[in-house]
Amino acid sequence: MNLPNMKEAKIRTNNKVEHINLENNIPNSFEGKKYFLRTYGCQMNVHDSEQIRKYLEEFGFTVTEELTEADIVVLNTCAIRENAHDKVFGFLGRCKHLKREKPELIIAIGGCMSQEESVANEIKTKHSYVDIVFGTHNIHELPNMILEANKKLNINVYSYEGNVYENVKYSRDSKITAWVNIMYGCDKFCTYCIVPFTRGKQRSRKMENILDEVRELKALGYQEVTLLGQNVNAYGKDLDESYDFSTLLENVAKIGIPRVRFVTSHPWDFTDEMISLIAKYENIMPYVHLPLQSGSDRILKLMGRRYTKKEYLTLFNKIKEKIPNVAVTTDIIVGFPNETEEDFLETLDIVNKCRYDSAFTFIYSPREGTPASKIKDEITYSEKESRLQRLNEVINKYSLENNYKYVGKIEKVLLLGKSEKDNSKLYGYTETMKLVNVITNKDNIGKIIAVKITDAKSFSLDGKAI
Ligand code: SAH
Ligand code: SF4
Ligand code: F3S
């Protein structure tokens, strides 16, 4: 893997992870100025953007959705698939244009793409109007970089080590549901995946710090927390402590926040104890995102996923059996290099057995530096597209089928805000993470209420407060 090793980048060679308390004293030096923040990618980035926004707001910037009004533009990027790259550089083109009219505009790029050496080089050679490139390990250094922003491109990206920072402040998107990082990075190194390179090795936060954060969120009236990590059930394995994810999950549940969720869990680290805890605690939501990636043992092995189709199915069935009314969703990649029709049929077979509540499906995208990207691939892109389409048809059929089972039932729904499609309704989620558009009183935002489900679609339910 090409890691950022350009002269400007600091390379951390020390393998020891440090747990560091951040100091947060940011001068109010941009009063009256505006920021435009765009986030690509997964929940990790969404949550990192809450940290970025906190810094911007402390500086005195206020948000704008209009790029042309911005005094600073921050792009929090994703590197998981190739097309993310094109989107970001397309957008940068617009920023360049803007900077011609407004030379004092600050342009900052962070997130997973910044960690790729090829991207940093591309910015250096073709987009030197950019002011700041920061990485995933040093978001806390963004304030200083903004203060020092001048005409010279400042690339400040660490390589893939990294520490754990505590006392991080966030400007959270919601006052009802909150993300809580429990770990950073990933040690799994699935052969197709860039995350272990862009996010570094697995680093868990200490349990007490996580529990303190959850207690604080509870005191602020939050109704839901989602424990966040690339591989949450490997939590703690990198620490010299006796606790693991189950210990953490149980302790979080005991704090008494009405809803506790977690993403993402890897099938390989899923324990019976986790299943028992989800079944036992009413406030641990009966919802599991269990990425499959492929149903073919041959492909799973090439992917480095560490489980077979049979082992996955055994785990899946145990989850379904032991947790009443649980919903299970998944991620699937089609078109891994040289995936045959037979391999693909194995994936369809497992989907037909698991009948997922829903799934995120992707066409394999080669990522530079990952082992899979070196495999010579004989399968055409149009074949991959056709497999994706065939897969999606089956997935959507089961989503609808599962959703129909809710019609006529009464569900507890946490209401989050006005429904986008129909402003007279509110939207919220069932315990099983089904999106529901609800006819109810506006005062119910932020509350968990009983809702009678009246209709089902592939991606949402309709309901009425009772
Ligand atoms: N840590 C999570 C996944 C993070 S990435 C896990 O292991 O489950 C989210 C999803 O993106 C993955 O589950 C996978 O399905 C998809 N993905 C990752 N790398 C990809 C690639 N190179 N091409 C296509 N999809 C990819
Ligand atoms: Fe990527 Fe695999 Fe880690 Fe998930 S578990 S982030 S797919 S390497
Ligand atoms: Fe993308 Fe980085 Fe998340 S690559 S999916 S933003 S961890």
Summarize the structure in words.
This protein is α/β, with parallel strands linked by helices and 466 residues long. The protein has three domains: 150 residues, Rossmann fold; 230 residues, pyruvate-formate lyase- activating enzyme (Alpha-Beta Horseshoe), CATH 3.80.30.20; 56 residues, Nucleic acid-binding proteins (OB fold (Dihydrolipoamide Acetyltransferase, E2P), Beta Barrel). Helices cover 32% and strands 22% of the residues. The chain is built from twelve helices and 21 strands. A six-stranded parallel β-sheet has the order 3-2-4-5-6-7, sandwiched between helices. It has a five-stranded mixed barrel with strand order 17-18-19-21-20. Helix 2 links the parallel strand 4 and strand 5. The N terminus is likely disordered. The protein binds S-adenosyl-L-homocysteine, iron/sulfur cluster and FE3-S4 cluster. The site of FE3-S4 cluster (F3S) has 13 residues, from helix 1 and helix 5.
Bound molecules: S-adenosyl-L-homocysteine, iron/sulfur cluster, FE3-S4 cluster
- What is the SS-derived class? alpha/beta
Report how far the terminal alpha carbons are from each other.
Answer: 56 Å
Give the count of structural domains.
3
CATH topology of the largest domain: the name is pyruvate-formate lyase- activating enzyme
Q: Which strand-content bin applies to the residues?
A: 15-25%
CATH superfamily of the largest domain: tm_1862 like domain
**Per CATH, which architecture of the largest domain?**
Alpha-Beta Horseshoe
The helicity comes to 25-40%
Q: Could you tell me the mean pLDDT?
A: 94
Output the number of helix runs: 12
Q: Report the count of strand segments.
A: 21
Give the overall form: globular
CATH class of the largest domain: Alpha Beta
Q: What kind of sheet is the major sheet?
A: 6 strands, parallel
